[in-house]
Known about the structure:
Layout: H1 9-35, H2 41-57, H3 75-89
Helix pairs in contact: 1-2, 1-3
Amino acid sequence: MKRKDPPDFKALARKAAQRSALNALRKTQRAADKAGVKLSDWEGEFLGSVAERVKTYGRAFGDPELGAPGQALSAMQNRKLKEIAAKAKGEDKPPPRPRRGFRKKSSDS
């Protein structure tokens, strides 16, 4: 009886991250189309090019310092994807947080 090789958990995690990223990109595009929200040229190109890179390379960024080792999208790509998804849902941007902390005194006074 042949012995099975143990599963490569890192490869399985990478494939799962790749599927998750592609699903999120497709879901965002479908939500924008369904809601009739007009995405800018940049946003449409972003969704298409990131999906293409994830399909081809397994992740959409080249520099390993830009994202977690097992993730398919970098931190900034995740942020932009969430912004586009919020736009597709019709959500407003949250108000800016008030600045807190020490302020530099102006030299006028």
